[in-house]
Amino acid sequence: ARHILVVEDSDEDFATVLDAVRRAGVPDDIRRATSGDECLQQLRLSALKHDALPALVLLDLNTPKCDGRDALREIKQDDRLRALPLVVLTTSANPRDLRFCYASGANAYHVKPVQYRDHLRILEQIFDYWLKSAVLPN
């Protein structure tokens, strides 16, 4: 099974992702990047080495250094990475961020709920859809 790349700088939010993966019963090879830079490094290294790319990228927009917006733009402009399913999960409900992400090629945009149970439910729905229902590129 291919892995999931989670770009998340919050330890608490990443722990919620791990809980949701277990509850959704999806493959649990989860790799983490804490910034857009680290995400791009991992993806480019995998592409160069012809390693398996992630089945899904779950991207927080507000990360240190190169943020999720920059990473999204670069991923969707790279011929080797452009087909990766990329779901934005962020605290930003700003319509400008929403428009930017879809215009830049994001496959979905979700606002991260504040409450743990709501956050868990959204993540389970994301994993159920993208890893169980959707047919993904190889």
3D architecture notes:
This protein is an alpha/beta fold and 138 residues long. It is 46% helix and 15% strand. The chain contains five helices and five strands. β1, α1 and β2 form a beta-alpha-beta unit.
The chain-level mean pLDDT equals 93
- How many strand elements? 5
Total of DSSP H or I helical runs spanning 4+ residues: 5
Beta-strand percentage range: 15-25%
Helix content: 40-55%
- Widest β-sheet, arrangement of strands: 2-1-3-4-5
Structural class: alpha/beta
User: What is the rounded distance between the termini?
Assistant: 11 Å
Order of helices and strands: EHEHEHEHEH
Shape: globular
Cα-atom Rg, whole angstroms?
Answer: 14 Å
Biggest sheet features: 5 strands, parallel
Poorly predicted runs:
none
Brief synopsis:
The chain is an alpha/beta fold and 138 residues long. It has helices spanning 11-24, 36-48, 68-77, 95-103, 116-133; strands spanning 4-7, 30-33, 56-59, 86-90, 108-111. It has a five-stranded parallel sheet with strand order 2-1-3-4-5, with helices on both faces.
